[in-house]
Design goal:
Shape: globular
Number of strands: 11
Strand content: 15-25%
Largest sheet: 9 strands, mixed
Radius of gyration: 19 Å
Order of helices and strands: EHEHEHEHHHHEEEEHEHHHHEE
Structural class: alpha/beta
Distance between the termini: 20 Å
Number of helices: 12
């Protein structure tokens, strides 16, 4: 095959132990997920010549690859927050197409929850006070407050209600109830969300993601390796990435996320439309992230997200567009950066391996097309990937 013509497929996915994991290190979770993903694919680790990781130490790919016994000839340490893993998947697919790598392993692990319980760290109120952040941190503008401010702007401009945002948390929990790996599975109501303790106006506790431990791994391989794998391939059809801003003062419109650009690029490159997508995995550190990303990916018009998320549309059971089918960061797991978990769930759904939460098309078949869209920082970055069975 000539350079640039090879297709890339996801051939292995896995999670490590997730939820409450008090007796593991981040490296342990990396290793668990990596071994399980390789086993899922049925490929030997000696074939892995590409490696991507972020979030551990100062030399993430080198440190984690050494721990896993890998010596890759292609590496990626892109770090753009929660969208890191969608961006890395795009880079890996490009490397495979160009012939720079044959099999690329993406892996992540974090003990964010256990570290706080053990006093090894505190909760992140901000990402620091250097560079452009020095003009915001002194005024107490925390990470959560930035998302809350953006949500308030959408409510002001488009009439979005707090009840509509709460519906997103309720439907995420309904999906989590079908997922045995989800950290929280008990049903919640809109009243439960609204009556919770205030975190950052208008967000109460259940508008915010949970904090968990956990890891994930995704193995991509060139098309000629697919026949040697245990699993059916899930193809990378199109990708897009975009960086928007760092300082809130440089964000032109609080009601438009960078997914408006990354999503458009991904759909154009895949040659598909949003209305052809069977389900979506969307980064949901806060309920507003789901709503605005749905708008910006083109599933509804700008300002229509509030009405779109009503009436159970996001549920696996009976929803028109199932979203965050595993329960998302609001209920399933959120160990620091969740972007890789979106890809794992999307692949499991496309392979028909999601058990009680399996999405079905109207003809009863498993899904054909999915989109995974990650967001980093405070809507600072976005990576979107369109995946398909064929």
């Amino acid at each position: 095959m000539s350079p640039g013509t090879r297709k890339a497929a996801v051939v292995g996915v896995a999670l490590s132990s997730c939820g409450r994991v008090d007796d593991a290190t981040p490296y342990t979770l990396h290793a668990q997920a990596a071994r399980r993903a390789l086993d899922d694919a049925g490929l030997d680790r000696s074939l892995v010549d590409g490696f991507a990781s972020a979030g551990t130490g100062t030399l993430a790919p080198a440190e984690v690859a050494e721990y896993l016994g890998l010596r890759p000839t292609w590496v990626d340490s892109t770090s753009v927050g929660g969208s890191t893993w969608e961006v890395m998947a795009a880079h890996a697919a490009d490397a495979i197409a160009a012939g720079h790598a044959d099999a690329v392993l993406l892996v992540y692990g974090s003990t964010a929850r256990a570290d706080i319980r053990a006093g090894r760290r505190t909760g992140d109120l901000s990402f620091g006070a250097r560079g452009p952040l020095q003009f915001e941190a002194p005024y107490g503008h925390t990470l959560i407050a930035k998302y809350a401010m953006a949500a308030r702007r959408h409510m002001l401009e488009h009439g979005t209600t707090i009840e509509q945002l709460a519906e997103i948390a309720v439907q995420a929990r309904a999906n989590a109830a079908l997922n045995p790996e989800a950290m929280f599975r008990d049903p919640i109501t809109v009243d439960d969300v609204l009556s919770g303790p205030m975190i950052a106006d208008p967000f109460t506790k259940l508008h915010c993601c949970i904090r968990s431990d956990g890891g994930a791994a995704v193995l991509l391989a060139a098309e000629e390796y697919v026949r040697d794998c245990r699993t059916a391939p899930v193809w990378i059809l199109g990708t897009g990435e975009h960086v928007s801003h760092a300082a809130m003062s440089e964000w032109p419109d609080f009601t438009v996320s960078p997914a408006a650009v990354s999503g458009r690029l991904a759909f154009e490159r895949a040659g598909v439309r949003p209305d052809e997508i069977d389900f979506a995995e969307i980064y949901d550190a806060f309920t507003y992230m789901t709503l605005v990303t749905l708008e910006d990916l083109g599933f509804c018009g700008k300002g229509e997200g509030g009405a779109f998320v009503e009436k159970g549309r996001l549920k696996v059971a009976g929803g028109e567009l199932p979203v965050n089918t595993d329960g998302g960061g609001l209920s399933a797991q959120h160990p620091g950066m969740r972007g890789l978990f979106l890809l794992v769930e999307a692949v499991r759904q496309l392979r028909g391996e999601a058990g009680a939460r399996q999405v079905r098309r109207r003809d009863g078949d498993v899904p054909h097309l999915a989109v995974a869209s990650g967001t980093g920082g405070w809507f600072c970055s976005s990576g979107t990937v369109v995946l398909g069975r064929e």
